[in-house]
């Protein structure tokens, strides 16, 4: 634990287990966080994540730009459509798969999770 403010300036993107570009943000590795991570994710035009869930961890998302469909449920049988300005909450262990509904614009979102290691709890389906 630190007693100072940590600034993280992303130097670029990396591809997550979900197969989406992520900008490095706050995590145990970058800031010494013990209970959460937060990063920026981009879904390219026409893109989608690999279906997955976060083993034991809650996820919150704020959509900055674009419009996405998120399929969810055991067989991804449910769906919600969200756009810029929407907040989403995904419970632990809920299978889900976000898809960009545009073929021309990217979706940009801030993602936060109560997992300081960001990718370790991701289980790809």
Characterize the structure shown.
The protein has 125 residues and is mainly beta. It has a single domain (14-117), classed as Jelly Rolls (Sandwich). 3% of the residues lie in helices and 46% in strands. It has 1 helix and 11 strands; from the N terminus they run ββαβββββββββ. It has one helix spanning 28-31; strands at residues 13-15, 21-26, 37-43, 52-54, 59-65, 67-72, 78-83, 87-90, 96-100, 107-113, 122-124. The strands form 3 sheets. The protein has a 6-stranded antiparallel sheet. Strands 7-6-9 form a 3-stranded antiparallel sheet, with no helix packed on it. The protein is globular, with a radius of gyration of 14 Å. It starts with 12 loop residues before the first strand and ends with a strand. The model has no long low-confidence stretch (mean pLDDT 90).
Question: Which terms summarize this structure?
Answer:
globular; mainly beta; 125 residues; Jelly Rolls
SSE layout and pairing:
Elements: E1 13-15, E2 21-26, H1 28-31, E3 37-43, E4 52-54, E5 59-65, E6 67-72, E7 78-83, E8 87-90, E9 96-100, E10 107-113, E11 122-124
Antiparallel strand pairs: 1-2, 2-3, 3-10, 4-11, 5-8, 5-10, 6-7, 6-9
Please give a quick description of this structure.
The protein has 125 residues and is mostly beta strands. It has one domain (14-117): Jelly Rolls, CATH 2.60.120.10. The chain is 3% helix and 46% strand.
Largest beta-sheet characterization: 6 strands, antiparallel
Number of helices: 1
Note the gap between the termini.
34 Å
What is the CATH superfamily classification?
Answer: Jelly Rolls
Return the structural class. Answer: mainly beta
Question: Approximately what portion of the residues adopt beta-strand conformation?
Answer: over 45%
Count of β-strands: 11
Low-confidence stretches: none
Give the proportion of residues in helices. under 10%
The name of the CATH topology is Jelly Rolls
The dominant shape is globular
- Strand line-up across the major sheet: 1-2-3-10-5-8
| Helix and strand pattern | EEHEEEEEEEEE
